[in-house]
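Lab meeting tomorrow. Please check the following:
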Amino acid sequence: MHTEFNNILITGAAGFIGFHLARRLLADGARVLGVDNLNDYYDVNLKKDRLAQLAGNPRFSFFQTDLSDLAGLSEIFRGHPVEVVVNLAAQAGVRYSLTNPHAYVQSNLVGFVNILECCRYHHVRHLVFASSSSVYGANTRMPFSVHDNVDHPVSLYAATKKSNELIAHTYSHLYDLPCTGLRFFTVYGPWGRPDMALFLFTKAILENRPIQVFNHGKMQRDFTYIDDIIEGVARVIHAVPVANPDWSGDAPDPGTSYKPYRIFNIGNNNPVELTRFIEAVEQALGKKVEKEFLDIQPGDMAATCANIDDLYHAVGFKPQTSIEEGIEKFIEWYRSYYHL
């Protein structure tokens, strides 16, 4: 069901995907409420610089609030019309979840339930929320399909994202809240996260330091360029899910429901081996890097690849950006942002 919405609340608006989405929706003429706690999981200045890009727009308002603060969150909903919520705020990162599990529970579970409660009480017409390719965990059948069972996560981060999908379905069942979960596949590009591979590799190569290459470079990732991701999300916002009339409890389909609930993969459908990814970075920078080959880390998946047929059928979305083109755009931004 396609509906045009104008009042959109984005959580994690100072984050990588949140910032790009806010910029896109503002360009489309929407009113955007941005919520972010500006935590110090990575450089807060980068988050503030992203926000500064949005600050001049009269249709953008920003609230520094933590999702675990239900009173603060409710106040925002009470004071502003909100038609759609895009929940992108989360404690991100697989490796960090091994050492800081409680951060994931507060943000990804407590915070997510608070968002659902606000959506329920303020009659939000569509909740779009970030899930992750990491929910596929121990699955090895490629490409990953939303119609496959995903009950074997290999990191706490993945388990919290799978929990988000389950809790959202419950709210869809109980309160007819339309919910769409998006499983993002390794997003990269300008204004990206400093804890992600592309950022780490670029920084190390420019500083003439060796890089750590896990799983001896045999990792495969469905790297997806930020502009492609944003195009997909922007389309999904206006495509409110409806019940699947063919859904059956005898053979339950995990990707759809008898209620207004959908799960989509949002990826490139074109996995790239880590060694090729590093070569593309070296090429774009015109420099070789010394590699330290290491075993796969606990919580990491060896490979990811998205089946995006459902998303294509629903909103006509297909990624356009090649890995070489995407990396070049990132490096161009990186050099300019850090005045190199």
